[in-house]
# Entry
Amino acid sequence: MKIKQIGDSFHLEAINNTGNVIQMDASPEIGGENKGMRPMEMLLAAIGGCSSIDVILILKKQKQIIESFEVNVEGDKEKVADYSLFRNICLHFQFQGNIDPAKAEKAIKLSLDKYCSVSKTLESTAKITYKLSINNENIVR
# Structure
């Protein structure tokens, strides 16, 4: 992974070994230009992406029909000394399709508790919870 500055402010580009690119930037309050995600936002994106891959993979293996999927991730930060930590992270998994709620909930638990490296990394400082909706019906709040 390589991180390089774009221009002379805080706009950064992260490039992985296969050439994929993500843009990062700081907040305007310290001179950023809103040209990319904040690094802490990327942590939320990382847990959402990691767990989504796990959950989709598990449900596909179980022959569940996913017509559409999204996960909304929210995190509450706490200031500690000169930095902030996420203390609470909630992932709201939302499916459309022919999906058994028990299988979806089990897939989410397996991801967050066992398979998702990002959730395992963050669990030492943050309480990680989830919500589940299938076809606009709340299954787990």
